[in-house]
Amino acid sequence: MRMFVLLLGLLFPLAVAAGEGPAIAKQDWGFDGLHGQYDKATVYRGYQVFTQVCMACHSAKYVSHADLDRAGFTPEEIAALAKSMNLTTTDKLVSGLAPADAQEVYGKVPPDLSVITKARAGLADYTYAVLTGYSDDVEALAHAFPNSEVPAGAYFNTAFAGYAIAMPNPLPNADMVTYTDGTPATVPQMAHDVTVFLQWAAEPELIERKHLGVYVLLFLAIFTLLAYLTKKAIWRDVH
Amino acid sequence: MASLKPKAVEQNITRNPLKWFDDRLPLVSLINNSVGRNFPAPKNLNYMWNFGSLAGIALVIQILTGLFLAMHYKADVALAFDSVQHIMRNVQWGWLIRNLHMVGASFFFIVVYVHMARGLYYGSYKSPREVLWGIGVIIFLIMMATAFMGYVLPWGQMSYWGATVITNLLSVIPFVGDEVVVWIWGGYSVGDPTLTRFYALHFLLPFVIVGIVILHIWALHEHKSNNPTGLDLQDEKDFIPFHPYYTVKDIFGLGVYLIAFALMVFYAPDYLGHTDNYIPANPLVTPAHIVPEWYFLPFYAILRAIPIKELGVVAMFGSILILFVLPWLDSSRVRSARYRPLYRSLYWVFLLNFLVLGWVGSKPPEGIYVLIARFATAYYFLFFALLPVVARVEKTRKLPKTIDEA
Ligand code: HEM
Predict the structure, then answer these.
(1) How far apart are CA B230 and CA A165, in angstroms?
(2) What pLDDT does residue B177 have?
């Protein structure tokens, strides 16, 4: 009996297949953990980066402005933001770059980013790592490509599998966007903010999920405790 | 022939409506006889015996959540991935329903694996429960088919490529293999016809499982539960009524289960899944490593351990089918591993070995992993091959006379 429990405990870690490819550094995210949240100001800064930089090439075809109410935006804010992009609040965030054109220019179609943080091993950490993974460090480059050069039309990136990514560094220097809340738009800051935005885009339900989970678990804890006490009472006369 | 003489039938519906009804359709009696006061259960069952009822509940959870998913899911290659996102984002409580179904499938397998490991340890497959055990193996097989086809439905990269790899295995069938595969696909590759039929079957099979579960319980009732001592129980005082004793124990077990389940559903719904399945299916891009869901990994490892494809497929199916003949392979008269020192050691190695198979199944089939997979596969079958010998040479411990003595 005890052995069974032990083995069951072993099952879980075994279930995760270890990822291969470059090591991805872990970051601290506000949405992690039991009380994970999306900070509205961060989501908004990330939204600025996404719409002003990434959307030149990438879409988020499952996401519209109306969804921002789940990150705490008011209807007025949502209407104003959509209007400033000449979109209705239910229009999806679709890039103007046609896939065929992208293929021609970059040799790759930029993937839709709606669920990107769930679609790569390393999750949000991976997106952040790609955005901050561009480097012109000669040693790192020589290490990644000992006998060759970065293939034409690709860029050296320490996080990308194969180290050569078709995406030109989208955040090459600070102040790609002007944050309205006065936060200095450094490269790590922009990468962090847009990753939070993309995590929100991938899992807008996260706040509700983690919030509801607390109540469900509380209920179940009480239920189980009562069931246990009842069980003990009923079984008292056996043995 | 049974007596046709009328029983004392309640005539007055208002005096005792329940008895009135039961005299006409003995539904209450059926429940009472199946999981109620009239079903005698050994009094010494430990918590390993909770997993049968848990499996039943896991099945009900899959059917209920599946039904609500089916109201919003679209089985069309152009729409499937989008419709799952639609469920996650726009359907009221859609994310909850899908997480319950997704994590529910994994938990269903955990429960059933424990349930089977329990049977293997306490010799529950032995006479007179061979048919009960065999029905269980059938349930396990249909469950695997159901889960496999369910995993295809979200139409992500792993859905598509998993389906391609696994259906392709049928091409090893002599003479007609390639035709069979084309027939199953409904075309020359996994595509829209495949998705649609998998959806139809994925909807149907759980109800087939329900039917077979009823047979499973029927067979259980014929000889009652086995127990940790493995002794045949005859004495009245060894039994207690299922209700209230085991109903309350099962409810407590359910509480513990639901806590673990809720932790996953609310805090790590994708933990047991594969990130590639959030990339829409793309027939032109093969994922670096195609891996099935975790609960198939041990069998996947057996498949890949053998360099000859045909043999690998036979070994993979054989590794499950061999369970059917287990009652005849293990001819020891003693059921419980408690009294079988040799079997007991082999058993724990077998379980650990099974976990090793699962782990190596998630690794690329190269280098040291191939070697590990081969040794583990060999032991998997060796275990079964040794059972007749073990039964002969093993010196079993002295059996207690009664369970109170144990
Ligand atoms: C033996 C019970 C069942 C098992 C083991 C099972 C397993 C699965 C699995 C593994 C998936 C893929 C989950 C994902 O990654 O999204 C799935 C999807 C699905 N299942 Fe089931 N299922 C069962 C019963 C049912 C039933 C009874 C129905 C319908 C009445 C159903 C309807 C669906 C639908 C519509 C999907 C696609 C939506 C989605 O992928 O989330 N399932 N199932």
Answers:
(1) 62
(2) 94
Q: What is the mean pLDDT of residues A24-30?
A: 93
pTM (predicted TM-score):
0.93
Q: Answer yes or no: are the C-beta atoms of B301 and B376 closer than 8 Å.
A: yes
Share of chain A above pLDDT 70, in %: 91
| HEC per residue, B61-118 | HHHHHHHHHHCCCCCCCCCHHHHHHHHHHCCCCHHHHHHHHHHHHHHHHHHHHHHHHH
Residue A235 C-alpha, separation from nearest chain B C-alpha, in angstroms = 7
CB B251 within 8 A of CB A232: no
* Residue B185 three-state SS: helix
Per-residue pLDDT band at A9 (split at 50, 70, 90)? low
Q: What percent of chain B has pLDDT over 90?
A: 93
- CB-nearest partner of B355 from A7, A205, A239: A7
Asked if the Cβ–Cβ distance from A227 to B255 is below 8 Å, we say: yes
Three-state DSSP state, B45:
coil
Q: Which amino acid is at A121?
A: A
With the CA atoms of A208, A119, B78 and B66 taken in that order, what torsion angle do they form, in degrees rounded to the nearest 10?
A: -50
What's the CA angle centered on A55, arms A89 and B92, to 5 degrees?
40
User: Hey, which residues does B280 pair with through a beta bridge?
Assistant: B156
What is the DSSP secondary structure assignment for residue A32, as one 8-state letter? -
Distance CA A231, CA B258 (A): 17
How far apart (Å, rounded) are the C-alpha atoms in residues B220 and B214? Answer: 10
Which protein residues touch ligand 1 with a CB less than 6 Å away?
A: B 59, 62-63, 66-67, 69-70, 73, 84, 98, 101-102, 105, 108, 143, 146-147, 150-151, 153-154, 202-203, 206, 209, 273
Single-letter amino acid code for the residue at B151: Y
pLDDT per residue as tens digits for the range B160-169? 999 999 999 9
b/e B101-113 (16+ beta carbons within 10 angstroms → b): bbbbbbbbbbbbb
pLDDT tens, B294-343? Answer: 999 999 999 999 999 999 999 999 999 999 999 999 999 999 999 999 99
Give me the residues of B, 29-58, that contact A with CB < 8 A: 43, 46-48
Two tokens, residue B94: 């859609």
CATH number of A8-204: 1.10.760.10
Q: What are phi and psi of A199, to 5 degrees?
A: -65, -40
- pLDDT greater at residue B154 or residue A142: B154
For chain A, the structural domain boundaries read 8-204, 205-239
| DSSP SS3 for B40 | strand
Judging contacts by C-beta atoms under 8 Å, the chain A residues touching residue B294 are 14-15
- For residue B161, the surrounding DSSP H or E stretch is helix B157-168
pLDDT band at A17 (very low <50, low <70, confident <90, very high): very low
Smallest Cβ–Cβ distance between B266 and the set A120, A213, A231 belongs to A213
Catalytically active residues of B are 221, 225, 249-250, 293
pLDDT of residue B135: 98
Do B367 and B298 contact (CB within 8 A), yes or no?
A: no
Spatial CB neighbours of B287, under 8 Å, sequence gap ≥ 6: B157, B158, B161, B276
- For residue A115, what is the DSSP state? T
